[in-house]
């Protein structure tokens, strides 16, 4: 990387540590809303088809965007443990405790819940995404520590993404702490870092309504193509039944479109607030949604079986 780019990245990273970035918080908020909507089981297929490619990948992209290469490994692990692992353990144990007192689904034994929580195998494991992000962050640091050449760096994260995608498509065995998702996570974290360090300034001139329109039209065309030729209506980090190329292409284009939409049009304080508190929303939205549905059932008829169809709800309700 050229010297000017390194200086720019250093200054930019320092600024990131001193203040929040509005578009980042709003993008997080939108993705968190998509997470909550997807877990209701009442989300129309069309909506899931639209937000599926970006609502989890964007979190990894943002994590890479905010990555600070100037921290030593001790400082980095300490910070990630404080911001991810500790909340993961605390919120996870609180959820398990609450489920022993009050649950809206079939009650699961304490030992089984603790085992699932510790092993973190499959998406039904409580707060799986936080666990996945923590492990990915540690591996991501090591890659950035040992690989300084940009070309080699891009090649490595791409090869890792392909290897893990093939593993998930052919073998598909869930591994502890969601290791099978590392390729996807590190790839988009890498894209976020590359975007911040080398592309953000260069692409600034393309951040306008016309290019956003082109991006949206491209995204719609890709969604239709994916549906017509691969019969796939939902693509995300957890789906490997469609084309691997389409899976990554849809996520990349949708992340670009979302970033433009947020930067150009969305200034909602409410969404920004959600984005600033995603861990809390992710940890407890299931209980709140379940309680609301129970209350609503007193007034209107709702198919709770449909609402709780999502396997994930076994560990958040």
Account of the protein in words:
- There is one protein chain.
- The protein is mainly α and 317 residues long.
- The chain has one domain (3-14, 47-270).
- 71% of the residues lie in helices and 0% in strands.
- It has 14 helices and no strands.
- It has helices at 3-18, 22-38, 45-51, 57-65, 73-101, 110-119, 128-146, 150-170, 182-203, 209-230, 244-264, 269-276, 278-296, 304-307.
- The longest helix has 29 residues, at 73-101.
- The radius of gyration is 20 Å and the shape is globular.
- The termini are far apart.
- The model is unreliable at 1-16 and 304-317 (pLDDT under 50).
List keywords for this structure.
317 residues, 14 helices, globular, mainly alpha, 71% helix
| Annotation, overall tally of beta strands | 0
Largest sheet: none
**Number of H/I helices:** 14
Separation of termini? 48 Å
> How many discrete domains?
1
Mean pLDDT: 85
Shape: globular
Low-confidence stretches: 1-16, 304-317
Structural category is: mainly alpha
The H-and-E topology, N to C, reads as: HHHHHHHHHHHHHH
């Amino acid at each position: 990387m050229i010297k000017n780019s390194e200086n720019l990245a250093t200054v930019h990273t320092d600024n990131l540590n001193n203040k929040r970035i509005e578009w980042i918080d709003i993008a997080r908020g939108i993705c968190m809303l998509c997470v909550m909507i997807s877990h209701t089981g009442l989300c129309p297929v069309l909506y899931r088809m639209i937000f599926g490619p970006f609502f989890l990948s964007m979190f990894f992209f943002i994590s890479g965007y905010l990555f600070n290469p100037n921290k030593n490994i001790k400082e980095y692990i300490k910070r990630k443990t404080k911001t991810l692992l500790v909340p993961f353990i605390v919120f996870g144990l609180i959820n398990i405790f609450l489920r022993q007192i009050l649950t809206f689904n079939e009650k699961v034994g304490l030992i089984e819940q603790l085992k699932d929580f510790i092993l973190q195998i499959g998406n039904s494991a409580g707060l799986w995404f936080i666990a996945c992000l923590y492990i990915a962050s540690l591996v991501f640091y090591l890659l950035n520590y040992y690989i300084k050449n940009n070309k080699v760096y891009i090649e490595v994260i791409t090869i890792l993404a392909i290897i893990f995608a093939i593993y998930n498509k052919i073998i598909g065995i869930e591994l502890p702490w969601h290791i099978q998702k590392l390729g996807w996570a590190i790839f988009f974290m890498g894209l976020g870092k590359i975007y911040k360090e080398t592309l953000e300034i260069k692409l600034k001139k393309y951040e306008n309504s016309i290019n956003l329109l082109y991006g949206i039209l491209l995204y719609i065309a890709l969604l239709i193509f994916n549906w017509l030729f691969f019969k796939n209506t939902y693509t995300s980090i957890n789906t490997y039944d469609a084309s691997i190329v389409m899976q990554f292409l849809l996520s990349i284009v949708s992340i670009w479109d979302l970033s433009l939409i947020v930067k150009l049009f969305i200034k909602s304080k409410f969404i920004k607030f959600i984005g600033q508190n995603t861990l809390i929303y992710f940890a407890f939205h299931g209980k709140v949604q379940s309680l609301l549905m129970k209350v609503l059932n007193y007034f209107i008829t709702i198919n709770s079986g449909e609402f709780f169809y999502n396997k994930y709800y076994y560990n958040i309700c």
